[in-house]
Amino acid sequence: MKASPENQRALLDVAELDRRIQQTERLRTQPAQGARINELAGVKQEQLRELTTLSGVLDDAKAELARLETDVKLAEQRRDRDAERLTAASDAKQAQALEHEIESLGRRLSSLEDAELEVMGKVEEAEAAVAAQQALIDTTNAEGAQLSAEAKAGMAAATTEGEQLRRDRTAIADGIDAALLADYERRAARGIGVGLLRAGVCEGCRMMLSGTDLTAVRRAASDEVLSCPECGGILVRTDESGL
Length: 243
Prior knowledge:
about 75% helix
């Protein structure tokens, strides 16, 4: 294939733009924050499961406290009723029975109040644990929201940059011979499309050409489209090629 040296050199600009377009496409579809955002989603699920467990403990403690409060209230009502009956009692035997019951209720109330205080402590501990867990979830949510905002901004910027790079590529590609451009694109689809020969080294694959290959390059006409013997990309010659 024949192509002007200018067209061949223009392929280097196209290749650079292709590289940058691919880079912006990765940034658009695979934001740097993506891995951490996914990790946080898993962390949040675990935190929510733990919150559910802790909330269950709190609910149980509150239910136990409510039961004890009801028992205390009933015992107090019964004690007060017995005390009223004792005041009005005229029968000694009945009065003695009421006194015994009031003493028994006093002991029960004391026991219930001790248990009530203990369970109140459990409720406070459970509430603190739920609050601490919710704070962890809030922190996770805040980090996730921040990272999501950064990712969206980065994706938008990459989209805008990619659109501009494609316009730049079109502007350059329109000036390149269609057959040469198609040849470059076929090669690029397989691997390396083009590489500058600099000081005997193909910059496409970073391999140095052998003396025999360099001799063949020197003998080739300037408009001859050459291939790197190592990577198969189009080999572009300039004053930097060291020929």
